[in-house]
Amino acid sequence: MKYQKIVVFCFVLISLLSQAQSKVYQSEREKIHDLVHTKLNVDFNFENKTMNGEAWITAKPHFYSTNFITLDAKAMLIHQVSMNNTALKYTYEDGLNLIISLPKTYQREEEFTIYIKYTAQPEKVYQKGSVAITSAKGLYFINADGSEKNKPTQIWTQGETEASSCWFPTIDAPNQKTSQEIYMTVPDKFVTLSNGALISQTKKGNNRTDYWKFDQKHAPYLFFMGIGEYEIIKDSYKNIPVNYYVEKEFAPYAKDIFGLTPEMMGFFSEKLGVEYPWNKYSQIVGRDYVSGAMENTTAVMHGEQAYQKPGQLIDENVQENTIAHELFHHWFGDLVTAESWSNLTLNESFANYSEYLWREYKYGKINAEMHLFENVDAYLNGQSDSKDLVRYTYDDKEDMFDLVSYNKGGAILHMLRTYLGDEAFFLGLKQYLNIYKYQAAEVDQLRLIFESLTGKDLNWFFNQWYFGAGHPNIEISYDYNTLRKTVTVNVVQLQTAAFKFPFVIDVFEGTKRTRHTVFVDARDASFTFPYTKQPNLIQVNADRSLVCEINENKVLSDYIFQLKYADNYAHRREAFLIIAKKQEDKDAFNAVVYALDDTSYKIRILALQQIDLINKFSKKDVIQKIMDIANTDSKTLVQAEAINTLGKLTDPALKPIFEKGLQSKSYSVLGKSLVSLYYVDKPSAIAKSKQLPDEVRKILATPLTRIFIEENDESELPFVAKSVLSGMYLTGDDATKVLFQKAFKQISETNNSEAIQNLVDDMIEKGNQYKGFNFDKVVINLMRDMIKEQQKANKPNRERNIDIIKTAMARLL
C-alpha cells in the first residue's frame, strides 16, 4: 500500500493520536485452522449499500484436531450456515466473530467446506483503518444512487489490514493463504475486475454474472473486487495480459500513465531472478479511494491522483513511483507475506526500495539519489526515531503504516545492499522468495538466508536496524598533522545507544578523490589517512548510505568545493542550501550561478528559487542565463521555475519569454507563465486565464487562484472555491496554503452565493471522507467562521448565504 500527499493532513492527526506506544505484545495470529479455498457468489444492493453473499469456505485444522471454527465476519447479517445441506449451529453475538460448530472432530489435513449465506453491511462497520479512512469498512459504494452528476458510480474493496472480513467471512490474518473464486452479478453496463482470470460472463436480463478464478494462494487482505464503467486498455508482458482500467476521459492517456508497467515487470523479474509469479497484471483507478494505491494480487487499485493529462505527464508522472511500488509487492507482500503486522517491513520496506531500484535502472544514479534523499529526509523530520522497524508492541496495527516501515525500512535495505554487495543482496532475495513463496515469513528468516549465503553474522545489523529504534547522531572533527601529512577523522556518536556501521569517507586533494571505507564499532572512533597535499575537503558518509544525522564545522569555502565536486546529490544539495544564505559574498553568489547547471534538475530548481538577482554581481549575464534555461532546459519543471524567477523581476522586456511559455505543452510552464505575465501585462494574462479549457483551468487551480485573488475577481470565486480546502490542508506547500487561506477569507466575505455553495459542497465531501480523523470538526469550525463573516457583511445575499452554510453544517453534524 502506498500513501500520497492527499493524506498529509490525516497523517498529522494520526501522529498526534499515536504518540504513546503500548507495551502489550502483538503476536502473530494463532493458526488453529488453515484456509484452503474461498468461493463467493455476490450481488449488490446499491440503494442500501449492502451486498448479498454466499460463501463456501474450505479449511482444515492446522495441527490440533478441532470440532469448531471461528471466522472473522464484521457487521454482517448471517442467514444460513450449513455443511452438505445440513444446518450447523453457530454463534454470532458480537458482530465480529462467527463461531461455527462442526458436525464432527476434524483431524490435521482433513478438509471441510462450510456454506454461509449472508448480507454484508459495510456502512455498519466501525473500526480504525488506513490513513484517510472514515471506517475500514472493506466494501465501498461510490455515488451509489447516481446523485452526484460529475462522479461515476463505482464499487471497490480495500482489504488491508483486516477489512476483507467486512464483505466475506474468512480468517482475516496475513499468515493465512487461500485460493479463490468469485461470481459477481452486476448491471450489464459495468465492467468488473478481481484477482486472477475472468473465466466467463453470463447475461441475466439487464444484469451479468462475471466469474473470476484465482488458483494460486494469497492472503485474504489481497482479495479484490472493482466495479464501474471503465475502458480497458490492453497491454502485455511476454504472454501475460497487462490491462489498465480507466474512465473513458482518460483512456487516450492510459498508456502514458501506466505504460512503463511491462518494462518494470521485466526489470524486477530479472533483478530478483524470479519471474513475475502471477497470471495477469491489471491496474484500476477508483474514485474517492482511501489510500494512494493497494497491491491486491493481479488487480492493483490506484486513487484518482493517478489520472493525469499530457500537460502534466510531460512534467512528471507523479504516479510512477507508486506503480513500481505496488508491482514490487507482487513479490514482497503477495508472493511472500509478512506473517504479522509487526513484520510489515517485509512488505512495505521492500516496496519502498523498489522505487529506488526502478529509478536507478531507468533514470540513472542521480535520479535515484534524489529519491532516496527525500525518503530519508522525510523519516528524519518525521519524529519517528523512537519506533523500532519490527514492532511487536504497537498500539494498533494501522500505526505500522508509517515513515519507519516505509522510508526508513527502504533506506535500511539500501544500507544492507551496500554492505553485502549487489551479488549477495539480490541472490539472497531470490532465495528468500523461492523458499517462502506462497507462505508467510518473519524478519529473522530473511536474516538467516543472508547469513547462510554470505557466511557473515548479521545479528548486529538486524538487532540495531530492525529490532531497535533511532539512528546515529554523529559529531565529526578533523585533526591534521602537516609534518606526517595525515588527517585523522574523529567520529563521536551523541545518541543514547551506540551503533555499529560501515562508514565511507572521501578525501579530496584538488579534484582527486580517494575513497576509504571504515567500520565504526564504538561510540568514539578515529581514522587516520595519508595525503600528498592539504585536502580541500573531507566528505563523510560520502555515499549517503548510512541513515544518520551529522554535525561538523565547515566554512563557506568547504561548501563551495562540496557543491562543485561532491559525488552524491544529497551532499551537493546540503552545500547549496548553506551557500544560498551567503550570496552577499561574491564566491557564494557565483556558486549559486554554477548550481544552475547542476546535473540534478532539483538542484537547478533550488538555484532558480533562491538566487538573489538583487545582488550586484553579474546580474545581466545571469538573467540571460536564466532566460536560456527558460527556453532550453531538458526538464519542463526547470523551465517553469526559470520563468517564475524571471517573473519576480516584473520587467516588461521579459514579456516575450512569458508569451512563449503560454504555448508550452507543459502545464507547469503554462501556469508559471500566466502568473509572470500577469505582473507585466494584466489584461493579457487575465484574458488568457479565462480562455483556457475547463479541464486545464482545474489542473492550474493554484496559479489561476493567485491571479484571481490578487485581482479580486468576484466572477471567478466559484471556480476558486472548488480548490480552497485542498489548497489549505492537503498540500505540503506553505505558500499554497497561505494563498488559499486568503481565498477562503475572500469567499467567506463575498456576496457570491455560487462560490459559497461550491465551497461548502467541497467541505461536505472532504468532511465525510476524513470524518474518522475529525476533519469534519475542522470543516464545521470553518463553516462557523464563514457564518460570522457573512453576518458582518451587509450584502443582498447575506441571509441566503448563511442558510446555504447552515444547511451544509446540518449534513455533517
TrEMBL record:
**For this protein, what reaction is catalysed?**
Release of an N-terminal amino acid, Xaa-|-Yaa- from a peptide, amide or arylamide. Xaa is preferably Ala, but may be most amino acids including Pro (slow action). When a terminal hydrophobic residue is followed by a prolyl residue, the two may be released as an intact Xaa-Pro dipeptide
What cellular component terms from Gene Ontology apply here?
cytoplasm; extracellular space; membrane
**The protein's enzyme class:** hydrolase
The family database entries (CDD domains) matched by this protein are listed as: M1_APN_like (cd09603)
- Ranges for the Peptidase M1 membrane alanine aminopeptidase domain? 260-465
UniProt EC number: 3.4.11.2
Give a yes or no for keyword Disulfide bond in this entry. Answer: no
**Which InterPro entries does this entry report, sorted A to Z?**
Aminopeptidase_N-like_N, Aminopeptidase_N-like_N_sf, ARM-like, ARM-type_fold, Peptidase_M1, Peptidase_M1_aminopeptidases, Peptidase_M1_dom, Peptidase_M4/M1_CTD_sf
Q: What cofactors does this protein use?
A: Zn(2+)
Q: Which superkingdom is the protein from?
A: Bacteria
Q: Where is the Aminopeptidase N-like N-terminal domain?
A: 37-217
Q: One short Pfam family name for this protein?
A: HEAT_2
Instruction: Please list the GO terms describing molecular function.
Output: alanyl aminopeptidase activity; metalloaminopeptidase activity; peptide binding; zinc ion binding
Q: What is this protein called?
A: Aminopeptidase N
The species this protein belongs to is Polaribacter filamentus
